[in-house]
Every structure is written in structure tokens, then in C-alpha cells.
Amino acid sequence: NAGVTQTPKFRVLKTGQSMTLLCAQDMNHEYMYWYRQDPGMGLRLIHYSVGEGTTAKGEVPDGYNVSRLKKQNFLLGLESAAPSQTSVYFCASRTGGVDTQYFGPGTRLTVL
Amino acid sequence: GENVEQHPSTLSVQEGDSAVIKCTYSDSASNYFPWYKQELGKRPQLIIDIRSNVGEKKDQRIAVTLNKTAKHFSLHITETQPEDSAVYFCAASRGGGGTSYGKLTFGQGTILTVHP
């Protein structure tokens, strides 16, 4: 039981490049979330999903897209990376009826 | 939407002292208040949480108190140890039911340093 995993752990992009971050969970959780963490700002919700095939915008969705084609996977895409998207990205998941969110190990992204 | 303010941003204590971190929230419908601990380079990990129908909850050296009327909640760590050094985040949510979908709004974080 690996819990929540994220791929990759680190990535450096140039402005304008695209990439996809993968979050996977093996706990059969319905809900999945993508957050970004910046110094002094806590964690902010980018997008979330309440089940397979569903996605919704969070607090800071601009510049990101998501997909949840399989229940266990939640993908975060950056179509044209900008330096302002330099951050640490965390994925989290939870099951229905329980509020506790379990976090992945994070992806550190640098956009030059 | 919800807004969570957390103070102080940094806190330095001597080993064995107590540490208190405070958070205020704006949405009176919030009913779930978790606290996360994040060590350097690691993921946030839940250490304790409280619901709005409870005023206080304890787990060994940590406790959380909630004042619904004033819309603030606090984390108390007693007999601090160097391994308590980390960043602590509070958060608030309307809970998993309804259309809130359990979305968490986080405070800005508190860097706690416990000196031996």
C-alpha cells in the first residue's frame, strides 16, 4: 500500500514548455486535490476532483488543466509554463465520509 | 470564500516550554479544522483535527481548542522537543458533505523552532 505517490519528484522547465504531473493513489479514494505551496502562503487549491471523470476549479486554477480518467490517477498539466508557476506541488486524496486528506510527497517545479 | 489567518509566522521556544499557534477563519459554515505538520522537504502530515461540535481535543502533548463564536482555533504543544521543530499549518473546511467537497483553506504556516 503505497498511499499517495507523485511523479516526478523534481523538474526544471523553460518558459513556454509544457509538462504533466501525475498523482496516483491506491486507497480507492473518491476525492483528489492538487495544491501548490509557495513560501509564506501556505497551500492553495488549484483543482480538485470528486470522482472519476469529474474535475473542478479551486482557488488558483489559471494556467493549469487537470484530468481524472481513472479513479486512482489525477493529472495536472501546464500547457505553457511561466516563472510564476515555480512552486512545490502537492496532491492529496480522501475517501467520502472522512474529512482527512492524505498528501503525496510533492513535486518541486522550477520554471526558468 | 473562506479566509484563514495564522499567527505567529515564526515561533522559537526552549525545549520543554509550551508553544501556541493561533488561527482565525472567516466562514461561519466551516466545521472541520485540521492541523498539519511539515518537516523540511517532506509532505504535510495530519497531527490533530477538531470538528465544530467539540471545543477541545487532546492527543498526548498536543491539543487543539476551538471557539466557534470568535471563529478562532489554536494548537497547543506542551513539553516541546527538538523533533517538534517544523512548519505547522492550520486549515478550515465545510467538511466533506454537500457542495464543499472537503476543500481545505490553509493558513500561511508557522515555523516552530525548538532549541535544545
Task: Describe the fold and architecture.
- The complex is a heterodimer of chains A (112) and B (116).
- Chain A has strands at 4-7, 10-13, 19-25, 31-37, 43-49, 56-57, 65-67, 73-78, 87-94, 102-103, 107-111.
- In chain A, the strands form 2 sheets. In chain A, strands 2, 4, 5, 6, 9, 10 and 11 form a 7-stranded mixed β-sheet that branches. In chain A, strands 1-3-8-7 form a 4-stranded antiparallel β-sheet, with no helix packed on it.
- Chain A contains no helices and 11 strands.
- Chain A is globular.
- Chain B has 116 residues and is an all-beta fold.
- Chain B has no helices and 11 strands.
- Chain B has strands at residues 4-7, 10-14, 19-25, 32-38, 45-51, 56-59, 62-67, 72-77, 86-92, 105-106, 110-115.
- In chain B, the strands form 2 sheets. In chain B, strands 2, 4, 5, 9, 10 and 11 form a 6-stranded mixed β-sheet that branches. In chain B, strands 1-3-8-7-6 form a 5-stranded antiparallel β-sheet, with no helix packed on it.
- Chain B starts with a strand and ends with a strand.
- At the A-B interface, β4, β5 and β10 of A face β5 and β10 of B.
Q: What is the β-strand count of chain A?
A: 11
- Fraction of helical residues of chain A: under 10%
From the N-terminal CA to the C-terminal CA of chain B, the straight-line distance is 41 Å
The helix/strand series of chain B, from N terminus to C terminus, equals EEEEEEEEEEE
Order of helices and strands of chain A: EEEEEEEEEEE
How big is the Rg of chain A? 13 Å
Structural class of chain B: mainly beta
Q: How many helical stretches of chain B?
A: 0
- Cα separation of the termini of chain A: 36 Å
Give the chain pair forming the largest contact, with residue counts.
Answer: A-B, 27 and 25 residues
Tell me the β content of chain A: over 45%
The overall pLDDT of chain B, averaged over residues, is: 94
Helix content of chain B: under 10%
